[in-house]
Specification:
single chain; 359 residues; mainly alpha; Growth Hormone, Chain: A; 0% strand
Length: 359
């Protein structure tokens, strides 16, 4: 339910961000998410929990999550620094559990999950909203008259383009590969390690993901978006193939996990920038939202497929081999189709919409 709401919200609020600016969408999303957590804290049955958390929090994630924030940051930076800037924002996803998971765990253990939901809502209102009010600022020229706004149909030419379709396919494979994070402790156990090693591995993944996001963002500013995006898929694919092998000790396992999973958020950050630069600021929100739906379908299906594969074979190795091959294929397709940072034709709303994107 959350993934469904998140995906729908990404498209809906992406379009609103295109038309009215990201600031209003982000601030509204924070309040919507807070309301969802407040409602969740008093939910008495499954349908109420599905409404408050599944629908409201899910939709809010599409409004104030990293997709819209990446869009906002991309508007403020020139192309030469845009990759690193968006990557800095992307580190929030792997690092946030390090700061908030202990607090949430303490509240659940001491009280119950409703107390944790209430605290989450209070944190959003008392901390996230004031920070968003101060920091979420659209460029001065963000206001668009009703006459100049792009219609929903304006995105159709992009969705028919071969390069864009390959980008969407690669984003889907990225989502499927996230099964590794969901099953990471299980993967550690299947390799003969204990649960404590699995827990440490989760921390290794978070740290490697943050560092890799910064690294790949920086590289994309200097050596080209498509080349670095393809490199991130290449590293993940090779790492995933190695992860399918037996691990001699925990240290080697940590290193391989860092290679196989670390570049994940670097992939997402660089691809977000590419989508923005391909379609321009007037269409980036809705295109990013559509790409995120594709990603979420993959990230929802990947863990299910991995579970089925494990139940049938007693191992994740076969599925990881298949996933490694898919990631390598994504690297080849991205590099082969967009090796010169392909730019698609300008939006149908006119040339003026794309001016300054690549400045």
């Amino acid at each position: 339910m959350v993934c469904f709401g998140w995906g729908v919200g990404g498209v809906l609020f992406g379009k609103l961000a295109d038309d009215f600016g990201a600031r209003r969408v982000i601030l509204g999303g924070i309040l919507l998410m807070a309301a969802g957590f407040f409602g969740m804290s008093v939910a008495q049955n499954l349908w109420q929990l599905s409404l408050w958390y599944g629908i409201m929090v899910g939709l809010a994630k599409g409004a104030c999550g990293l997709v819209i924030i990446s869009l906002l940051v991309a508007k403020h930076y020139k192309a030469k620094n845009r990759g690193l800037a968006v990557s800095v924002i992307q580190t929030a996803s792997p690092l946030s559990p390090l700061f908030f998971s202990p607090l949430i765990y303490f509240l659940i253990q001491t009280f119950d999950w409703r107390a944790a939901a209430l605290a989450s809502g209070l944190l959003l209102v008392a901390v996230a909203f004031p920070l968003g009010w101060l920091g979420a600022r659209d460029p001065d020229d963000v206001s668009i008259s009703r006459h100049d706004r792009a219609s929903w149909g304006s995105c159709l030419p992009y969705l028919r383009d071969r390069s864009m379709l390959l980008m969407f396919a690669a984003r889907f494979s990225c989502g499927v590969a996230l099964f590794q994070s969901v099953h990471l402790v299980g993967i550690a156990l299947s390799k003969g390690f204990d649960a404590a090693t699995g827990a440490i591995t989760v921390g290794v993944f978070g740290g490697a993901a943050a560092v890799s996001a910064l690294l790949f963002g920086w590289l994309s500013d200097r050596y080209g978006r498509a080349q670095v995006l393809a490199l991130s898929y290449l590293v993940r694919g090779l790492g995933t193939l190695v992860l399918a092998l037996d691990m001699p000790n925990a240290i080697v396992f940590y290193v391989v996990v860092a290679l196989a999973m670390g570049p994940t958020f670097g992939t997402i950050a660089v691809q977000n920038v590419m989508f923005y630069e391909i379609v321009g600021p007037r269409m980036a929100g809705v295109i990013l939202g559509l790409s995120f739906i594709v990603h979420q379908i993959g990230s929802a299906g990947g863990p299910i497929l991995a579970s089925i594969a494990f139940d049938l074979t007693g191992s994740y190795d076969g599925f990881m081999v298949a996933m490694g091959v898919i990631l390598l294929a994504s690297a080849v397709l991205i590099y082969g189709a967009m090796n010169s940072d392909t730019r698609l034709p300008e939006p149908v709303i006119g040339k003026k919409a794309a001016e300054g994107i690549f400045s």
